[in-house]
Amino acid sequence: ETGVTQTPRHLVMGMTNKKSLKCEQHLGHNAMYWYKQSAKKPLELMFVYNFKEQTENNSVPSRFSPECPNSSHLFLHLHTLQPEDSALYLCASSPGTSGGADTQYFGPGTRLTVL
Amino acid sequence: GQNIDQPTEMTATEGAIVQINCTYQTSGFNGLFWYQQHAGEAPTFLSYNVLDGLEEKGRFSSFLSRSKGYSYLLLKELQMKDSASYLCAVRDGDYKLSFGAGTTVTVRA
Lengths: 115, 109
Description:
The structure holds two protein chains of two kinds.
Chain A (H helix, E strand, L loop, with lengths): L3 E4 L2 E4 L4 E8 L5 E7 L6 E7 L2 E5 L6 E7 L2 E7 L7 E8 L10 E2 L3 E5 L1
Parallel strand pairs in A: 2-11
Antiparallel strand pairs in A: 1-3, 3-8, 4-5, 4-9, 5-6, 7-8, 9-10, 9-11
Chain B lengths: L2 E3 L3 E5 L4 E8 L6 E6 L6 E6 L3 E5 L2 E6 L4 E6 L8 E8 L5 E3 L3 E6 L1
Parallel strand pairs in B: 2-11
Antiparallel strand pairs in B: 1-3, 3-8, 4-5, 4-9, 6-7, 7-8, 9-10, 9-11
């Protein structure tokens, strides 16, 4: 596997379910990100981890809980979601060098539907 | 807050040129990125500008004017495979990227 992978690619869950999204990067990067992409809206940054430490939480509701056990893996734990949380959830990674040219590389995303 | 504007949709003919404009008002500026996203796929990196001027990469070029808060992505010799959404993003700090809503380009035969 190369690049950034995400599993599952599609997920349907009820509002009372608990599920987790997984992201893995094979690029040797130090920073990882979770984004939410809704139709016709800009990508919304949710969380940033740099060297396993959370450096950004963009006012995300507590029903989304990130976990970064190491620089290669990132999880997003989901519980008691709402239908408006249905979206494409994208993971990205970057080398983590502070500064402008730190390019983010994206995974294919998990298409989440909350019933 | 951050404000990044780009047109919603553009249509062009195969072999033609299309220019996608992006204007931004952000609290800081540490570079501007363009990404391409095909439907159902990951955004892929196209270009990065931090200094004023034009950066050329094959059929794609990106321009930046920091004083005007303006960038454009120029796609030349359009091909059908260029039909996609093009995302403008500004880095306003160390890591955070703020994205525009994207411009959907449709290439017609």
